[in-house]
Design brief:
The complex is a heterotetramer of chains A (251), B (353), C (71) and D (235).
Chain A (H helix, E strand, L loop, with lengths): L3 E5 L17 H15 L6 E4 L8 H4 L3 E3 L6 H11 L4 E7 H7 L1 H9 L5 E6 L2 E2 L5 E2 L18 H4 L5 H5 L5 E8 L3 H19 L4 E7 L3 H4 L3 H15 L3 E4 L6
Parallel strand pairs in A: 2-3, 2-4, 4-5, 5-9, 8-9
Antiparallel strand pairs in A: 6-7, 8-10
Helix pairs in contact in A: 1-8, 4-5
Chain B lengths: L5 E5 H11 L4 E4 L6 H14 L2 E4 L3 H13 L4 E5 L1 H17 L3 E7 L15 H5 L10 E3 L4 H18 L2 E7 H5 L1 E5 L24 E2 L6 H21 L3 E4 L6 E4 L2 H16 L4 E6 L1 E3 L3 H7 L5 E6 L5 H9 L5 E5 L7 H15 L1
Parallel strand pairs in B: 2-3, 2-4, 4-5, 5-7, 6-7, 11-12, 11-14, 14-15
Antiparallel strand pairs in B: 1-8, 6-13, 10-12
Chain D lengths: L3 E6 L5 H12 L5 E6 L12 H6 L2 E4 L17 H6 L4 E6 L2 H9 L2 H6 L2 E7 L9 H15 L5 E4 L9 H18 L3 E7 H7 L8 E4 L24
Parallel strand pairs in D: 1-4, 1-5, 2-3, 2-4, 5-6, 6-7, 7-8
The chains are: A alpha/beta (251), B alpha/beta (353), C alpha+beta (71), D alpha/beta (235).
Chain lengths: 251, 353, 71, 235
Amino acid sequence: MAETVKVYSRPKTLIDKPWHFCPGCHHGIAHRLCAEVVEEMGLQEMTVGVGSVGCGVFSYEYFNFDGIGPSHGRAPAVATGVKRVLPDRLVFTYQGDGDLAAIGTTEMVHAAVRGEKITIVFINNTVYGMTGGQMAPTTLMGQVTTTSPLGREAKQAGYPIRVCEMLATMEGAAYVSRVALFNPAQVVKAKKSIRKAFETQMQGVGFSLVEILSACPTNWGLSPLEAAKYVENNLVPVFPLGEFKVPEGVK
Amino acid sequence: MSNTELLLMKGNEAIGEAAIRGGCRYFFGYPITPQSEVLEYLARRLPEAGGAYVQAESEVSAINMVFGAAAAGARVMTASSSPGISLMQEGISYIASAQLPAVIVNIMRGSPGLGGIQPSQADYFQSTKGGGHGDYRLVVLAPSTVQEMIDHTVMAFEIAEKYCTPVVVFADGMMGQMMEPVILPDIEPVPSEKPWATTGMQGRGPNIIHTLHLPPDQLEWHNNRLFEKYHQIEAQEKRSLEYFTDDAEILVVAYGIVSRVARAAVEKAREAGVKAGLFRPVTLWPYPSEALVKAAGKARKVLVVEVSMGQMVEDVRLAINGRVPVEFYGRIGQVPTPEEILNKITQLIAEVA
Amino acid sequence: MAKVSFLEERCKGCGLCIAFCPKDCLELAESLNSQGYHPATLTDEGKCISCAICARMCPDVVIEVVREARR
Amino acid sequence: MQRVLVLTGGFGSGKSELAINLALSLAQQQPTALVDLDIANPYFRSREARHFLAEHGVKAVVPREEWLDADLPILSPGLRSLLRDSQWTVVLDVGGDEIGAIALGSFQADFKAVPHQLLMVVNPYRPFTRDVDGIEKMCREIEGTSRLTMHGLISNPNLGQATELEHLLRGHQIVVQGAQRLQLPILGLGVLADRLEEWKPALPSLPLIPINIHLLPEWLLRKKQTSPKDESIKK
């Protein structure tokens, strides 16, 4: 080939270093999509990412823009502090299911209630990855984890929490959607959804959240491809995909 | 408000106004008696002053909003009372570790548990010895008048920014609620440069604020760095006041509201011919131990008075190091009267006579 | 320059790129990289249409894709 | 003066001390009750003087003993029957600001049926009533939340124990301007009891309400307060 045109290359919003994620882990795709959208919107110099505690704990080491590592579950409160001081910046949190939907439920709900102009990128893989495969608030019924060894049972551990459905009832939440990454078409949709969420924020409309159903091959004990299929076949029926709330003007 | 104008202010309001004059434009808090007027005052005044006030969903969230605002480079404050301060401890540990400047006001109430709403000084250990997890220190300022609540709040922001560390303004419910005439400072504080703040890169490389240091030697290095700073604070920021200490045979040690009662008691004792003196620490951490030892030079007994079961008394005993007997008198839920302290002084002077 | 190039040292051999390649022109190499993974590799440059689906599925951002410049 | 006097005002305007002093002086002529309706403040409420009031012939209507220090909006029982009993002169001490006056709203119908005076105590040395605009705003807000009409002002310019005659006179001028704006009469002037005789010749011709301090401990009343300005800070 004499002359070539780049079709895809690493976004400059990602620092050039290897990641700690397991083979086939969807965190990597989610990180990349966030970074790509920041770059495409021209916001690299105007972004503050707020990480979390969980497998996403090193997000600030991977993103090539300003970053904060908060305590477990408090990212929406920390992001609120940043955004109130710097209302014209893009401020987003990157949180897993334990961080957001267990220990951080209060902060998430009230950021939405206040219509805080931040974005939450929520990685739902139904399990605590960092601490070694314990039950999450989104663990499916019957799913075996290290703390639900016989499978999640309602009598003992209740039911999986549906974050999007809950937040969509709140007036302050402007954009709420659930996407997945189990095939290329879903990845394209997921990226569009993150872009809509960031645009919702930058237009000052209100709170936005994108839930990303993600594969955790290691803690599910599945190959990367099997794990992607598991998302499609087992997670999607419990956590239906789609946009739950879209503000006028961002559609 | 002009600088010469006299006002009658409640302690809690005074802290709110002092914060604004000290350059603070961001406040995050949650209502709790006897502190709520700080929120109420700033809810009115901050929008006028061009800042942001957010009533958080809990003290846990409030302190994390403070973390975010401080990371973004703002002068920021929160206020609460004992149980609420307990809830903030995790966040305070993170702020200390991340080396962010912030001001935390504790208008103490009765404890433990839900306790009561009456004045207390029982959070001394929590504020001066830690409170949250890990090796860190908070600068703790103990005002005793409404005017000092103003002056110390302004000073708290300066110290916080000078050392990039959280500073506590430590007062009790009575000081939060009582009213005294004050003169508000007419100052134009210059916020320090914060090249480390996460404000969006805007031409530089990424700024990262975090508290995770996985390799043991890196964590040790981080702790050593924190302690170099704390040693510097110990060398430079100790403050105390003394009354009639030169020849005092009975040295009373008290801070905050109690120091005022104690001063009245010491004056009464002097009128009765008893050589009593008062040592009043203004910084509870770093503790003014050297000044205390000097003040106790001629003392035959030291009497520590607190609205607690006895907390600061441990720091006094550490400083005095057995040179003189250290006695304690404490009340719970109420500030002792000058007569109670005077009785104790009289009793002690009889013992050594 | 190949249409698809891999940062082989960072590839974890998860195979998502191979599974979703519409032209079946990728596979895991016989060799191991220094991490101990079989990295993905392009087997048939002629079949590749530079669609970049592989890169969009890659969780480790190890794939760069180019196409011939149109005149 | 009406039989029922409702004292409102900003936080820290001096309502409670005024209410106590007013009730004590009224009690010398007729059966008088003081009702503590302060649901906003946790400390320094008129209930703390209940024993003193009882000893001096004032019926103190306060929450039950075990709830006196409760951090709850507990209303004093017996208010309704007192309002209807023409035997009694009633002084109501309402919580500060428009927030404190909310508690009056629930008794609005009772007040409509009883001749009363809604009075606002004004201390122009307090942050939100420092000028005519502030005084007007406070009055309108209290009327709004209590759903009652203001009948007059009580001028109470003070800096606590640090008050000097010049402070009182200068502050009173602001209250006079406020009263003109609101077109309301000033029905009294609060003056520290121990300075009253000395200052009397210079004071305006208004009913003077001598203020003895009942809610603060003696050691808090020291004229000269300790401050780092008059002592060197030892490092």
